[in-house]
Write a structure and sequence with these properties.
Largest sheet: none
Order of helices and strands: HHH
Structural class: mainly alpha
Mean pLDDT: 94
Number of domains: 1
Strand content: under 5%
Number of helices: 3
Shape: flat
Low-confidence stretches: none
Number of strands: 0
Length: about 70
């Protein structure tokens, strides 16, 4: 889990920094850069947790799958 958190922090910062440099410090630019950083970090964290085979990640995936199947019926 520590590895996942470190990856989350690194990816979030790099994405934010790159987009912030491109879009500037306007409110819209900050919304986009922070949102993209959070999104990219979250995806990397989820992939790291899944890859490390954390049991809770499998449990969450199963609960989401059950919920989605029950909505379809």
């Amino acid at each position: 889990m520590l590895l996942g958190a470190a990856l989350l922090a690194a990816v979030s910062y790099v994405v934010w920094d790159l987009i912030d440099a491109a879009l500037g410090r306007s409110l819209a630019g900050q919304v986009v850069s922070v949102g993209a950083g959070i999104g990219a970090g979250g995806i990397v964290y989820a992939l790291a947790v899944w890859g490390l085979r954390v049991p809770e990640a499998r449990q969450i995936a199963e609960l989401v799958a059950i919920r989605l199947r029950s909505r379809d019926t």
